[in-house]
Amino acid sequence: MERYDVIVLGLGAMGSATLYDLARRGARAIGLERHGVAHGFGSSHGVTRLIHKAYFEHPGYIPLLRRAYENWARLSDESGESLLVQTGLLVTGAPDSPVIEGLSRCYAEHDLPHEQLSAGEAMARHPQFALPRDYAAFFDPGGGYLLAEQCIEHSLRLAEERGAAVRLHEEATAWKADAGGVRVVTEYDEYEADSLVVTAGPWSADALRDLNLPLSLRRKVQLWYATPDPAPYSAGAMPVFYAAMDYGEFSGFPIRDDDGLKLAEHTGGDPLDNPDTLDRGLEPDDEDKALRFVRDVLPGFEPERSRFSVCIYTMTPDERFIIDRHPEHANVAIAAGFSGHGFKFAPVVGEILADLATEGCTHLPIEFLGIGRFKGAAR
Ligand SMILES: Cc1cc2nc3c(=O)[nH]c(=O)nc-3n(C[C@H](O)[C@H](O)[C@H](O)COP(=O)(O)OP(=O)(O)OC[C@H]3O[C@@H](n4cnc5c(N)ncnc54)[C@H](O)[C@@H]3O)c2cc1C
Known about the structure:
Number of helices: 8
Bound molecules: flavin-adenine dinucleotide
CATH superfamily of the largest domain: FAD/NAD(P)-binding domain
Helix content: 10-25%
Number of domains: 2
Structural class: alpha+beta
Mean pLDDT: 97
Largest sheet: 9 strands, mixed
Shape: globular
Number of strands: 20
Distance between the termini: 32 Å
């Protein structure tokens, strides 16, 4: 049996970034994926993901984001594609909403480029929006979106070009680790390596059953709307946006193609027990709030639904990621529970996991993401 330096279990956003980083540093790595490349069954599909430089959820994310931007730039250079489209990001909400209060704090504490705008100023600049008069807004010029599937495709292609092995449509059914290394059993084969990285997304609780991780799943719907007059809502004419309304928080992406403007609600989402039984259809009330949002905030936009896609959030109780070494196996690194905001971090998560897998430690600050913060999880 061929022996590898590292096995990566799961090749979504985080696993593909990890395999790419491992291959860049010359490690003999293999990635296992139960579906195809950039498939639509997990958490990383739907064309676009927000990225921005300010982060209020925890100050620890700021240095990770700086590094993520550097790594996205390198991936774009190496792939020859602009994977990060910098449109600027408009964030708006009531002045006392957690989003606006959190961003105010973040900008006071960190030297990050931004503009603070009143609702009136934001609407004067972006007349597509109708905002409640008392709302506050921030503009992040570094914000924009990532082309999600393309990021994964290029990471895996570049990893393979540098010698990594990729096994698609091959489910890992068991793994074990001891001081001598790791062994992963799949439906077709067995693989050995010095270390293992588990990046199984919504399937993490299953892949890491022994850890009893406090993860919960949510069903999330992404919606695309065409409109008879697309120009004012197109990339170039409008930034990406994030709006905290009193009935939910919504992200929006300007029109790129015939699919139209994309909207997704970050809040809400039905609880889900098993990612394999996800309801992938559009239920009657799935777009009620999105349509209300369009009526309230984009009143000139006449929505004609062109497409939808159902996706999964994997939540932790504090909505912070889990990135750590397995408490009982130093040669197993895990990354899970990205709680609906992980994609923008994928290449720095990949670097961290490659560090943990090849060196046993990382210089990047991840203490605040450790597994030990959860009571009841094995440590
Ligand atoms: C609707 C929606 C909108 C979002 N918006 C944003 C956003 O704007 N900005 C942002 O930063 N983040 C956003 N996120 C979050 C972000 O997309 C996720 O945090 C990220 O994609 C998670 O990546 P992952 O690698 O952990 O999971 P996945 O990409 O799901 O990857 C896990 C992979 O592991 C594979 N796998 C699992 N078990 C096995 C096994 N036993 N054997 C082999 N393979 C296995 C799966 O098939 C899958 O490919 C959003 C998420 C959703 C759903």
